[in-house]
Each structure stands twice: as C-alpha cells, then as structure tokens.
Specification:
Helix 3 (about 55-105) crosses helix 4 (about 110-120) and helix 3 packs across helix 5. The protein has 5 helices and 2 strands. With about 140 residues, it is mostly helical.
Length: about 140
Amino acid sequence: MDINMPNLDGISAARIIRRDGLCKCVVLLTAYSDEVFIEGAKNVGVFGYVVKAVDEKSLVPALKIAYAKAQETTDTEDKLDEATKRLEERKIIERAKGFLMQSEGLDENTAYQKMRSLSMEKSCSLRIISEMLLMRANKGG
C-alpha cells in the first residue's frame, strides 16, 4: 500500500486495517521517506516500510520477513489473550471459593472440592459453577 492514495492516505488505511484485524500484516511501499511518515507508520502498527524504487530481489524478502514478524506477533497476542482468560477464570473460581468458605464455614480445600463435585455432578465447567455461586452471593445467599 502507498502513503499517498486517493480518498484515504496509507497511514489512515493501515490504522483501520490493523484496528479491525483485516489482515495480519501491512507493508507500505512508497516514494516518501520523510520521518513524519515513518513515525506515523510505526505508530499504527505497520510491519514494513519500503521506499521506491525497489527491485523484486529486495521487495520479496522484505515482505516475507514482515509477514513472519506479523505471524509471531499474532501468536504472541493469542497467547496473551489465553493467559488473560485463564487468569480471569482463576479469579472467578477464587472468589467463588471464598464465598463458599465464608457462607458455609468451610476450609479452602473443602470449598474447592465441593465446587469440583458440583462441576462433575452438573457436567459443566468449574468457571460456570463459580459464576453461579457468585450470582447466589450477589443475591444475598
């Protein structure tokens, strides 16, 4: 994509593409090497910035490297999302366990075992059991 395009400049287009996840990798191929354009490209998450005139021998490796880096970034973001999800689930389970400990006077291990038993009995995840317990807690008992 070029910096100078009709209707929408390349930096704005790249921002939209990255924000909306429309593709893994944006590379700008342009005649502009001004620092303001380069900074703009960095700020919107462009993975490559190639200044014309460029031959195929230079362009193809640059595109391959940019795509590989974009894939690494996607993989890292996916891992972060998964870790965040697991942490949130753990927090919910811990809060529910705390509710059981307080409301039923149970020790930590017994409260957790009760939640596990409910999970197996109801054939649903520990998170769902925890969310149900927390809803009960929010209703006052």
